Amino acid sequence: MSSIQISLVVASKHPRKLSEFYAFATNGELLPGENDQHWRVVQRNGISLHFYKPVTNRPWPNRGRAASLCLEKAASVEPLWAVNQWIESLVSRGATVDQQPKVELFGAESWMTDPEGNNFLIFVPSSNN
Fold first, then answer.
1. CA distance 27 to 125
2. Environment class of residue 51 by beta-carbon count within 10 Å: exposed (0-12), middle (13-18) or buried (19+)?
3. Phi and psi at residue 125, to the nearest 5°
4. Residue 109 belongs to domain with CATH number
């Protein structure tokens, strides 16, 4: 049986620009894809995010939170502080806050919107558990 790799794919009107945003947001490595409309962001753990421009003869994919990217940092004693610092950094690159940060028993999180309007979640677990 051959090995199967898991990756995520994101439709984008400007795949290079959006992949640059996520390479910054995740400290990932930006790599060219199969053509000039396809870029990849490779994570240290081997997971890849693929950004592509859909062909014009298909309807644009729906957006929503049912399936979204979740960006997670290392656990922190002060997860809300860490999320707020991360938000500042991402906003400087074109993201917007969709839902203000909130603290839960498991850590802090905030829903954000990337420069193309896709929702994503940032999450910092609490190391107090």
1. 18
2. buried
3. -65, 155
4. 3.10.180.10
Give per-residue pLDDT as tens, 42-72.
999 889 999 988 766 666 666 665 567 889 8
Q: Which of 7, 22, 27, 9 is nearest to 115 (CA)?
A: 22
Taking the C-alpha atoms of residue 111 and residue 56, their distance in angstroms, rounded to an integer, is 30
Tell me: do 47 and 77 sit in the same domain: no
- Taking the complete model, does pTM exceed 0.85, yes or no? no
In a domain, 105, yes or no: yes
Closest by Cα among 8, 7, 23 to 114:
23
Q: Is residue 58 part of a domain?
A: no
Q: Are residues 48 and 82 in the same domain?
A: no
- Same domain? 120 vs 75: yes
The per-residue pLDDT for range 23-48, each reduced to its tens digit, is 999 999 999 988 888 999 999 988 99
